[in-house]
Amino acid sequence: MKKDKVIYWAATGIIALFEGVMPALTSQTELAKEGIRHLGYPEYFGNALVVFKIAGVLALVLPMVPKRLKEWAYAGFVFDFLFAAISHGAVDGLNFQSFFPFIILGILMLSYVYYHKLQESKG
Is the pTM here over 0.85, yes or no? Predict the structure, then answer.
């Protein structure tokens, strides 16, 4: 069980850093705004995305959040990573930026699997 907790929190912590902390700290930089524009999205879309990413991370890391809401947060991140890969692939072609979201998606799936392992061991 201890190993499961370590794996869950390591994976969830990486997601929290990439999808909560980094966007919160960098979303208003010119580089971030240019990245959104480069992909063809309006600036307000980037702002909304950051708000939902932070809310999703809070749903994943706070223990008092209901399980159903955590499931929605996981689903939202899956869509986020898939559409990030599609957007980068469509605009820039197949390169590292197109595949990087799949790496983070793999880490998210690790978090998801171990979240459920921990839930099963409780109940």
Answer: yes
